[in-house]
Every structure is written in C-alpha cells, then in structure tokens.
Automatic annotation (TrEMBL), chain A:
Single GO MF descriptor: mRNA 3'-UTR AU-rich region binding
Name recorded for this polypeptide: Protein ECERIFERUM 7
Ranges annotated as biased composition (Basic and acidic residues): 425-436
Similarity remark: Belongs to the RNase PH family.
One GO biological process term: U4 snRNA 3'-end processing
C-alpha cells in the first residue's frame, strides 16, 4: 500500500489553485491560450495500417488489421469494425497491466462511436460473400505516453491507421463460386478501405468556479478539471458524437460555443491528417514502381534511351517490387540499388529471385559514348517524382529507372529474364554514370572487360 | 595520475579512475558513485567525476528519481496524517514520516493541520536504505529557518541535476537574470521539485517554463532565453 503511494504522481493544493487562478486572465501553465491545440505530429510505420500520433507529450499508436469472419446474423451484408485499447503501464504510473480499466473502456467507446455510428467506414464494401464471409476490421490503440487528452490523440491515430490500411483483394472461386480466394499482395494490389468522412474528436475541459473552458487539456489540467466534454465532428460540420464525462454542469450556451470552436479545430486537424496521409501515399507509390515487361523486348540494342524514357512514365504503376539493378554480373538475384557499386554487393537485400544467369551477357559491348551522353541528358530531364527517387536512393535509382528496361518483377515471367540479362549492361553503365561519369567510365570498362 | 584525465569528464560504471598502487601514504575521500576494489577506484554510477582539492572525489549524476539522504532540503507533499506523524511523499522509493512535533515550538497542544496535498519544505533527518525516511521542519538547532508549508505558487518537477544547478552558488545564470528584472520567490528541493511564486500568474508561468527548459542550455543560451522571455513579458504587460 505504501509502496504504491510512493510511486504515483500527486497533485498539490497549490497547483490546483494556481491552474484555476491562472485561467482567469486566460493563461495556461504551458503558455498556451485556452483554445490552442498542442503540436500534432503524425507518423506512419513500415506496414500499411499503422499510425503514430504525438500531441504534445501524449503519444499514441494505432494498428489496423483485418480478418475474414462470419458476419452477424442480423447484418449478413456488412463487415464489422472493432476497437481494442491498451493502456500500457509505461504511459502513466497509474495504469495497471491486464484488463482495461474504466478510462480505457471509455476511450475505446468514444473512438468507436465516432467511427461506427457516423458510418465513417463503409462496412458494406467489406462483404465478400453475403451471409458467409466478411472482413472484420480490428483497430488496436496503444497508449505509449499519457500527457493528457488521450481521446483526441487516439482518434487521430485510429484515422491515420485506417486511411493507410490496405486489405487484400479477394475473389470468389472454386467449383460453385462459393469459395473465397484471398490474393496475396504480390499477386494483386491490396485495396484501401472506403472511408466516407473523417470524424475528429475535440476535447474540452471545464474548470469549476469560473466556468473557464480550455481545449486539449494536459495531464495536470485534467487532474484539476471539474468536467470534461468530447465532441466528435467532421470537417463538414456534422456532429458525429458528444460525450460529456460527468462532473460540473455546463450551460447550454457554453456547449454551443464549444461546438462552434470544435468545428474550426476539426477542420485544421483534418487538413493535417490529409496532408500526412497524402505524403505517405506518394512515398509508398514511389517505392512500388511497376515496369512494363513489353518494353524490355523492344529496347534490346540499347541505343534508344529516349524511347525507354517514354515508356517509364506510363509504366509508373504501383507494384510490389523494388527496382532491380545489377551491379555485379556474378549474382543471379535481383538486388536493390543501395549504394556505390562496390559496396552494394554486400548490402543488397534479395527481394525476388528471378532465375536465369546474369553472367550471360550477350549485349555487353563496353560503354557506349552516345548512350552515356543520352543518360546524362536524361538525368536532367527526369520527372520530379523520379528526382525524388534519385535523391532518396543516392542518385542511382533515378537514372537506373530511366535507363533500365522496365520490368515486371512477377516471378516466372519469361520476358523478365531477357530484360534482366539486358539489365546488367544498362544498369551498370548508367548507375555509375549518374554518380561520377569520368571515374566510372574507367571502372565500367574494366568491369565489363572482366566479364 | 590517471584521475587527471577523468576529472570533470563523463564516466560510466566500470571506469577505473584512480590507481592506488601508485599513491602511497595519501588519504583519499570518496563520495557517491565511487567504489574501492583493492587498489583501484572504480565508478558505479554514470555521471561527471568531480574533484575537490586536495583529495575529495565524487560522481555527479542527474536523474528523475530521488534517493533520500540526510541533511537534504526537499519539497514534500502530504499524503496522510497519523496521530504521531504525517506521511509525506518526497519522490523517493518510500514515503517519509514527518513527526507532528518536529516544528519550532511544537507541543502536543499546537499540532499543525495539513490537508492532503499540502506542499512542505522539509529537511531529511534520517535516511536508511529499506526504511522510511524521517523528516523535520526545523533546522539542526531547532529553529524554523524557512521550513514549513508553502502557500500559493506553482510547483513542478525536474531532474535532480537541475535542482542542484539551481542551488549553486554563485547563483545559476537563469535565476540571476530573472532576479535582476522581476521579483519572484523560488524554493528548490533536492528531490527534483521546484516551487515558484510571484505576484502575477504570468510571471510564475514564464519563470517555471524557463527553468524547466534550462537544463540542457549553456550559460549564454540561458541568458538569451531569459532576455527574450522578459521582452515578451514587458510587451504584454
């Protein structure tokens, strides 16, 4: 008993009184004004459907996963959405491991109500086979640090994760068309969820004596507050849910004022969320560029770099492959271009193995000076997106993509082998050229000579 | 001597900072964070090694937890009151006891009444590992000497290193810079708690936030920050 007393944070009488007196001239202890939000940052994880939100000191992570299950009897055509919250003991000394406490259940319920009752996530599109098989979406919210106002942060995290989640595509197969076939992501591109609007939670805290209202309370303010209200609404001005969690009685006029302020704040947060999701999606798209297999057969002689360039933009598709390029003639595997040619051998990771000898190189004829000039010219003419790639991947990828024959990296594709064989020549010359034309030329000649 | 390299440097547990085999007939005094293993003095706590001439060595470290030690002045929060002592939380591993008679002129007739959550400036009298520490609201000679309850103001928590820096003499640059322009009072507990009070809440908020941010700033940076904050304060008031 005494041990527990020693470990928790305590509120002093002084602090309580100070927070309330400071609110009279509209001052908050961290220097914010009453209706200012803290800094909101949204990050995404490596996998689709994971979002991490930081609101000041508060830190929340959300993960979205999906599973095929049987639907509810009374809703055979709809998928389901369920939310699980975990209040990690590292977030706050008062959080205990094990079953969710009252606050955890309330948080889960508020987020759930905002998403489900307002029909933000389209559940009918989650139906695969009516009455038999639907997708059940599960959102896991992990509270990592409790700096106050967990509901708002958890809501934004859940939305961020839902917006970036991709579920596998599935089709009906089998003899009678009743079997559900789930396609792995390599086969068919996974699909995003259909989300109609974004319900944003905005929390207000009320301080007893003077009817002061603040938005986004910190941990200390929450301990002092007399009452709390969470409004969930979207940028269109629709109110999705209101939760008033007990405490002081509030005048109707105050509630209306809060709703008006919340609409403005929800608009801001929606903007930020959309921007973050957009930039994540563009990055994701850039990583998965799918090349057409047909173009590899056309550009066999390697002189028409321009035509190849034309093919690359239309071939800009999302695919699950990384761009392969061969620096070494020795390895048989597709490798990522990660660094300088010499060290790339050790550092490259094998993504997809495509059979076929890469040491067999019928097209090697050393460095083609015309080609070299064309590659340098192309580098200047590359599109903005490709330039992004270039900067990201140490300037090798961009030119590699332009110069490389476009590829479809699905396994077992015959044209790929031709492309692959052709690749070493192109890839090596252009990649090296991209970085140091003069030096690389000598190295090229020596390496091509060695093969 | 090997210690010359290590003084005022960051050391980690396991570093051997003194080799006694080379120093015969000398008395060395070891403070916290150091341990003698036959002929070698090694570090047990990460921090900066300090030397006070001629022969006192110790390791200074900063952390969020407080380990109670005797004669420290700390800020405690009253958690409960019993018949013979108050239970006070001083951010240590165990709650501390403050005897009801440990006040200047304290008798059974005039026992002070503290509500739960009252903030007290107290002195640690006994601190043994495994036992609850004992506190007192008087100094060693029995006088009140500023100990006792603190009224109003705002208390925040910081690391032990920052509280030691605030209690340095000559005074730390941030308190000095503020003190030249505005009037405020501050009580610093070695257990990582600081209490600030001033006439207006905005002053309190500015001083408190400035102190919280000053731990990692150098002297010059602290002065610049204080100047900027004072400018804002003067503009707004």
């Amino acid at each position: 008993m005494e041990q527990r007393l020693a470990n928790s944070w305590r509120l002093t009488v002084n602090e309580k009184k100070f927070i309330e007196t400071a609110l009279l001239p509209a001052l908050r202890i961290d220097g914010r004004r009453p209706f200012d939000y803290r800094n909101l940052t949204i990050n995404f994880g490596k996998h689709d459907g994971s979002g991490e939100v930081q609101l000041g000191q508060t830190h929340v992570m959300a993960f979205v996963t999906a599973q095929l299950t049987q639907p509810y009897r009374d809703r055979p055509n709809e998928g389901s959405l369920s939310i699980f919250t975990e209040f990690s003991p590292m977030a706050d000394p008062s959080f205990e491991p094990g079953r969710p406490g009252q606050a955890a259940v309330e948080l889960g319920r508020v987020v759930d109500r905002g998403l489900r009752e307002s029909r933000a996530v389209d559940t009918e599109s989650l139906c695969v086979l009516s009455g038999k098989s639907v997708w059940a979406i599960r959102i896991d919210l992990h509270i990592l640090d409790n700096g106050g106002n967990l509901v708002d942060a958890a809501n934004v995290a859940a939305l961020a994760a839902l917006l970036t989640f991709r579920r596998p595509e599935c089709s009906l197969g089998g003899e009678d068309g009743q079997e559900v076939v789930v396609h792995p992501p390599e086969e068919r591109e996974p699909l995003p969820l259909i989300i109609h609007h974004l319900p944003i939670a905005v929390t207000f805290a009320f301080f007893g004596s003077e009817s002061s209202v603040v938005i986004d309370p910190t941990h200390h303010e929450e301990a002092v507050t007399g009452g709390r209200m969470t409004t969930t609404l979207n940028a269109n001005g629709d109110i999705c849910a209101i939760q008033k969690a007990g405490g002081e009685g509030i005048l109707q006029s105050v509630i209306m004022q809060c709703l008006r302020i919340a609409t403005v704040k929800a608009g801001d947060i929606t903007e930020k969320l959309k921007k973050a999701v957009d930039s994540y999606n563009t990055e994701r798209a850039l990583k998965k560029i799918k090349r057409h297999p047909s173009s590899t057969l056309m550009d066999v002689d390697g002189a028409h770099s321009n035509s190849r360039e034309k093919q690359s933009p239309p071939a800009f598709k999302k695919a699950t492959s990384e761009f392969p390029s061969h620096h070494t003639r020795k390895s048989n595997k597709l490798e990522n271009v990660e660094g300088e040619t010499n060290s790339s051998e050790q550092r490259n990771t094998t993504k997809n193995f495509i059979g076929g000898p890469s040491s067999w190189d019928p097209y090697s004829k050393g460095v083609d000076p015309d080609f070299l000039k064309a590659s340098l010219a192309l580098r200047g003419a590359s599109t903005a997106s490709k330039k992004q790639e270039v900067s990201k991947n140490e300037k090798m990828h961009g030119v590699a993509k332009l110069e490389e024959t476009t590829k479809d990296v699905n396994e077992g594709f015959l044209p790929v082998e031709a492309a692959q064989a052709e690749q070493p020549t192109r890839g090596e010359k252009t990649l090296k050229d991209a970085v140091k034309p003069k030096n690389r030329r000598k190295k090229n000649q020596s390496s091509t000579g060695a093969s | 001597m090997s210690d010359n390299q290590f003084v005022d440097q960051l050391v980690v547990p396991g570093d051997v900072v003194l080799d006694l085999s080379s120093m015969a007939n000398q008395t060395i005094k070891l403070g916290g964070g150091l341990r003698q293993e036959s002929d070698a003095i090694s570090v047990t706590k990460a921090g900066k090694l300090r030397l006070s001439k001629p022969n006192k060595y110790w390791v200074e470290s900063s952390q969020k937890r407080y380990v109670p030690s005797v004669e420290d002045s700390v800020l405690g929060i009253v958690v409960d009151s019993r018949s013979d002592n108050f239970i006070v939380d001083i951010k240590g591993p165990a709650v501390a006891f403050l005897p009801v008679l440990a006040f200047e002129g304290g008798t059974r007739r005039n026992i002070p009444k503290f509500e739960v959550g009252a903030l007290l400036y107290v002195r640690v009298v006994k601190a043994n590992p495994g036992m609850n520490p004992e506190l007192s609201c008087t100094d060693a000679s029995g006088k009140a000497a500023e100990f006792g309850p603190l009224k109003d103001g705002y208390m925040f928590e910081c690391s032990t290193g920052l509280s030691r820096m605030l209690l340095r003499s000559p005074p730390c640059p941030i308190l000095e810079a503020f003190g030249k322009k505005i009037s405020f009072e501050v009580a610093v507990g070695l257990n990582g708690r600081v209490w600030v009070n001033a006439a207006s809440p905005s002053t309190v908020i500015i001083v408190a936030n400035a102190i919280m941010r000053s731990e990692s700033l150098s002297v010059a940076q602290q002065k610049i920050m204080v100047e900027k904050l004072l400018q804002n304060l003067n503009i707004s008031t």
